[in-house]
Design goal:
The structure is a single chain. By secondary structure, the chain is an alpha+beta fold. It contains one helix and eight strands. It has an eight-stranded antiparallel beta barrel with strand order 1-2-3-4-5-6-7-8. β5 and β6 form a beta hairpin. The termini are far apart. 16% of the residues are buried.
Length: 158
């Protein structure tokens, strides 16, 4: 009987620790407003957990989703010719982020910039009590890159 109690106590402790770590990792999930640092155009990105346990982000709203002629903006600079016809709204532009509990950040992923058609290594870090997301994109080492701050939003823009 004593062994059973110890076993279930240990199982509860490990399960609780795992759930706590899991909830920390999922704190990045949600909607963020991102402004282009060059032209100020805004978009909204939804970050979510994939079935493989990694985190991705996709564009769910753009301030200017269409060209002046009414045609949707498309990913015309994508290095993959098969993806150049996809619209920017709905595009997965962040991939493969994994939560690093020790650093309290999401790393190992890439951020794609449809304006340039380039992907950058990246890491993410929550700031301002989870209301801001620091997104650092870089080539090679993180010293050679750019940081932008995205603001968390409660509702999806229309």
């Amino acid at each position: 009987m004593k062994q059973t109690i110890i076993f279930f106590s240990l199982l509860f402790f490990i399960g609780g620790f795992s759930a706590q770590s899991q909830s920390k990792a999922d704190k990045v999930c949600g909607l963020y407003y991102a402004a282009d640092p060059k032209n100020g155009e805004g978009s909204q990105v939804l970050i979510y957990k994939t079935t493989n346990g990694k985190y991705e982000g996709k564009v769910v709203w753009m301030q200017y989703p269409n060209h002046p002629n009414g045609e949707p903006r498309r990913d015309v600079k994508n290095p993959d010719p098969n993806k150049r016809n996809q619209t920017n709204v709905g595009m997965v532009m962040m991939r493969d982020f994994v939560y690093d509990e020790k650093e309290n950040e999401w790393s190992g992923g890439t951020v794609y910039n449809p304006v340039s058609g380039k992907s950058y290594r990246s890491y993410l870090k929550l700031e301002d009590n989870g209301n801001a997301l620091k997104v650092r994109g870089y080539i090679g080492i993180s010293l050679l890159g750019q940081t932008v701050i995205w603001r968390r939003e409660k509702e999806q823009r229309k």
